[in-house]
Write a structure and sequence with these properties.
This protein is of the alpha/beta class. The longest helix has 27 residues, at 204-230. Strand 1, helix 2 and strand 2 form a beta-alpha-beta unit. It has two domains: 8-88 and 223-430 and 527-605, TIM Barrel (Alpha-Beta Barrel), CATH 3.20.20; 436-505, no CATH class. It is 41% helix and 10% strand. It is globular and about 75 Å long. The strands form four sheets. An eight-stranded parallel beta sheet has the order 11-8-3-2-1-16-13-12. Helix 4 runs antiparallel to helix 5, helix 6 (150-158) packs across helix 7 and helix 7 (160-175) crosses helix 10 (204-230).
Length: 609
């Protein structure tokens, strides 16, 4: 295996022991939303037991990292980055088969009934499954076999910091038919202790049931972790930077949050209005005053399951885009501001939090550092030895050549990827986004400058090759002068348009040249094109190369139809097509599919096996 231990990026004393634990060799891995895979025994959705099949597949293909999306309880939104807890896991992922040896005949019949109601395979998860599965789990719990189990009692004791509040919160939500905690009666909303104690007394079984489900999830996930350790597979978890406004965390610790604000991201060339996530921002001063116990407890529980932890939106630890909560929803992230407001405070703010995390976990930490990232964030991550993300479509010389960087210019301290859960898959990017700019962004910037939108679009863009809200440049707009002339403004007035143009005009052609494939450029994706670009990230300097499972399966045309439909999430939108995509073949079928041999060969050739 290729070693990287001589490089100074790996010698940082803060991370030295963590590097020694996971090894300094280059590794490859796969990002898999658990809801996107299934086995022949799955009950309507992938579950924890299915991860063992995925581990076996990784052993065969030479991958040594499985990266999961957040596994926390998603509540009614089904968005893993808007979960109702930073601690508790999603009950949908409980394996009924792992419980089946202890179940009665009637329960086994009920499991079969659910399998028939929610058959696999299916293109999208039907989240009405959650009620059916939880109802079944209630039936199992009601048999009373675990109530006085010593292991269960120890689990409750060890996780008292979060478990009591979480279970009570969930029972109250059920009592209020799913209403948000801020719509409950004041006695519960404001956590009146005598009233809560009385509720707990009257609803003891419902509260204990929530704890029992979390214990089952804990037991099963620990089994998976042990299975992975025995096969030298690392599990990489995901720590969302934020939590839902309607969450047990916010209800139990409102002092840790700024409830007058919603977090998001400022406008950029990919999201014209920016993003508004709705989650409240943190009151880090109050968290720090409590010696960061809330953060430490999150890490303590995550460590039960993960070897590596991805810090979501790490730049938000330095400064976060804060939008007044009463700002109209349609404005998305347009009218926000950075918190802290003083740029001089950003470095210490982020550093203090990251050092707290590094000092309170054995997990190796990686960071999602995408978007507009201030230099203090990048420099601090590098200094602390925390790998960021290098996404192939954005690894470019943005200022001078406006071209894609070759493999040997990727950051060594990074995770090289083709796509993320928030982007299109790579084939969809190639076919629909490469060489384009966002239509909403272009239109809004035109309106701001008094430019005729219709006239500019007709002159600048090829409508026949513009789809999915992306505008493809006409090839004859072959100079900045041509662009400026059509816009009818002085260069300094349209500097941002010039920048967009330089970084997207003939973007596909530039990448095609780098891929070094024969023949004319192909507008449509095919496995040969995907193999060529996958080699770039696999053979890059990056210590890790972890690919979305969807991209890997496109190596063999497993998906059919418009590539654009196969994405995990579209940021800034809410709908049934987010967080629900299921791959079209079972894990058993994947194990025997020719695509797995192809993946194995590519990983072996890249010396990441």
């Amino acid at each position: 295996m290729t070693k990287a231990g001589t490089n100074k990026e790996f010698s940082n004393t803060v991370l030295k022991k963590k590097w020694e634990r996971i090894g300094k060799q280059k590794r490859s891995g796969v990002t898999v939303p658990l809801f996107s895979v299934f086995s022949k025994d799955s009950t309507g959705i992938g579950d924890l037991n299915d991860l063992k099949l995925l581990i076996d597949w990784c052993v065969y293909t030479g991958n040594s990292i499985i990266q999961l999306l957040p596994m926390n309880d998603v509540g009614s939104t089904f968005c893993p980055y808007d979960s109702v807890t930073s601690f508790g896991l999603e009950p949908l992922y409980i394996s009924l088969d792992l419980l089946s040896s202890e179940l009665g005949l009637n329960i086994l019949k009920d499991i079969d009934k659910i399998r028939k109601m929610f058959p696999m395979p299916r293109q999208r998860v039907d989240y009405s499954l959650k009620k059916a599965k939880v109802d079944l789990l209630w039936g199992i719990f009601s048999q009373g076999a675990y109530i006085k189990n010593d292991e269960f009692l120890l689990f409750q004791k060890d996780n008292k910091y979060w478990l009591d509040d979480f279970a009570l919160f969930k029972a109250l939500k059920y009592y209020y038919n799913g209403a948000a905690w801020y719509d409950w009666e004041d006695k519960y909303k404001k956590r009146n202790k005598p009233e809560l104690d009385e509720f707990l007394k009257q609803h003891a079984s419902e509260v204990l049931f929530e704890k029992w489900m979390q214990w089952q999830l804990y037991r099963q996930f620990k089994q998976v972790k042990e299975y992975a350790v025995a096969r030298n597979i690392l599990i990489k978890g995901d720590l969302p930077i934020l939590v839902s406004r309607d969450s047990a965390d916010v209800w139990s610790h409102p002092e840790f949050f700024k409830l007058d604000f919603a977090a998001g991201a400022p406008p950029d060339m990919y999201c014209a209005k920016g993003q508004r996530w709705g989650t409240p921002t943190y009151n880090w001063e109050r968290i720090a005053a409590d010696n960061y116990l809330y953060l430490k407890e999150k890490l303590k529980y995550s460590q039960n399951f993960y070897d590596i932890l991805r810090i979501d939106h790490v730049v938000g630890l330095f400064r976060i885009w804060s939008i007044p909560y009463n700002e109209p929803i349609e404005n998305q992230g347009l009218n926000g501001f950075f918190d802290p407001g003083d740029e001089k405070k950003w470095e210490k703010h982020g550093r203090d939090i990251l050092l707290t995390m590094l000092g309170n976990t054995d997990m190796f930490l990686c960071a999602e550092d995408l978007g507009v990232i201030p230099k203090v964030c990048t420099d601090t991550l590098k200094e602390l030895g925390i790998p960021g993300n290098d996404v192939q479509r954005w690894v470019k010389d943005w200022k001078t050549k406006h071209d894609f960087l070759p493999s040997d210019e990727y950051r060594m301290l990074s995770v090289a990827v083709l796509s993320t859960h928030d982007t299109t898959n790579w084939p969809a990017w190639w076919e629909n986004e490469a060489g384009t700019m966002d239509e909403n962004l272009f239109n809004r910037r035109c309106v701001e400058r008094g430019i005729d939108v219709k006239h500019a679009q007709e002159r600048l863009f090829d409508s026949a090759r513009s789809e999915h809200g992306r505008l493809r440049w006409k090839e004859d707009i072959n100079s900045v002068d041509a662009l400026v002339n059509i816009l009818g403004k002085k260069r300094e007035e349209v500097a941002d348009f010039i920048d967009f143009y330089k970084n997207t005009y003939l973007e596909k052609e530039k990448l095609w040249k780098q891929l070094n494939l024969s023949g004319p450029m192909r507008e449509k994706y095919d496995p040969e094109v995907l193999s060529a670009v996958l080699r770039i990230v696999l053979e890059s300097r990056a210590i890790f190369s972890i690919q979305l499972i969807i991209d890997l399966l496109y190596l063999d045309n497993i998906f059919s139809g418009d590539t654009y439909q196969y994405r995990i999430n579209t940021p800034g939108t809410v709908g049934e097509k987010n967080w629900s995509l299921v791959i079209p073949l079972s894990l058993e079928e994947l194990a025997g599919h020719p695509v797995s041999s192809k993946i194995k060969e590519m990983i072996a050739f890249s010396v990441r096996s």
